[in-house]
Design goal:
295 residues; alpha+beta; Arc Repressor Mutant, subunit A; 9 helices; 38% helix; 18% strand; elongated
Length: 295
């Protein structure tokens, strides 16, 4: 464990949390928040979720609702105005979100004059100041992480643009194309590269590359391109289970292990190596190696 690195990560995350508190009425871009803390934009959302316990947008939405709750208690502003200030276009949408968070609609909350819960989360402060930040993890991390040095990996790839949960169609098309050309062999590796945060980037603009390792003579063809995944040090953790829960492994790796490791991430996409086939493997038995690039 590297205590100095852990404290550094906490201070950098604290800067981000203060920045969010002080700019709640603005459109907060992931790249700008990453820059405030000097984290790689590729991995900031994973570090944030792992350390704070919620995604960037979940955190922002909750603070805006908590601000609305505070203003309900302290003033007589119309609920509709508070809804707009919190980023909701309709009274109904605001009431549903408010009720999910506080267990009661805004009007009842105002009547009861209820206080915010005293839990470990970072809550809204009207002065925008936070004196400290305590990450959600406790004690030694149970995650098993290995630092591996990879050589550059040359891959053929087909890009998918759209919801991550719809990459299956791209994989089917890509695998059919590769199979017809005899590109699958005993040494072949099946990889995936994800570029965007689905909580921030619109679903129809999410980018993902379905990849297959190829030799140096391979040339791009039609929709299939070629790229060299950079070599270097990577932090590798094994994810066991459905692909839908990969974000949990990323959060633990980047938010728990990384701050204690003495290492920093570098600006390059993470790699997912799929060790078995979802076509003939139950979701709970899928095995994926997750590689996060290190400086």
């Amino acid at each position: 464990m590297n205590g100095a690195t852990e404290r550094d990560y906490q201070q950098r995350m604290l800067r981000v949390l203060v920045f969010i508190q002080q700019h709640l009425d603005e459109a907060l871009r992931l790249e700008d928040l990453a820059g405030v803390a000097n984290f790689s934009p590729f991995h900031f959302h994973r570090i944030f979720r792992g350390m704070v316990g919620e995604t960037v947008m979940e955190h922002i939405r909750r603070l805006r609702l908590e601000r609305a709750a505070q203003r309900l208690r302290q003033g007589a502003q119309p609920v509709t105005r508070l809804a707009f200030e919190a980023g909701y276009e309709t009274h109904e949408a605001f009431t549903r979100a408010f009720s999910r968070l506080f267990g009661m609609p805004p009007s009842e909350y105002r009547e009861r004059n209820t206080l915010l819960p005293a839990d470990r989360r970072v809550h809204y402060r009207s002065d925008g100041q936070l004196s400290d930040f305590e990450p959600v993890f406790r004690g030694e991390s149970a995650m098993q992480v290995t630092v591996k040095k990879l050589e550059p990996i040359r891959v053929a790839f087909m890009r998918h643009v759209g919801p991550y949960m719809e990459v299956g169609a791209t994989w089917s098309k890509f695998c059919a194309w590769a199979g017809m050309r005899g590109l699958f062999g005993p040494q072949s590796r099946i990889l995936g590269l994800s570029y965007d945060d689905p909580d921030v980037t619109p679903a129809d603009k999410l980018r993902y590359d379905a990849c297959l390792t190829v030799g140096p003579q391979f040339q791009p063809e039609g929709e299939v391109g070629v790229q060299d995944i950079p070599g270097g040090d990577y932090a590798m953790a094994v994810h066991r289970g459905p692909y839908e829960k990969l974000s949990e492994t990323y959060a633990a790796l980047c938010g728990e292990w990384l701050p204690r490791s003495g290492r920093e991430v570098r600006t390059a996409p993470a790699i997912e190596m799929y060790l078995n086939n979802p076509q003939d493997t139950a979701p709970e038995e899928l095995v994926t190696e997750v590689y996060v690039p290190l400086k």
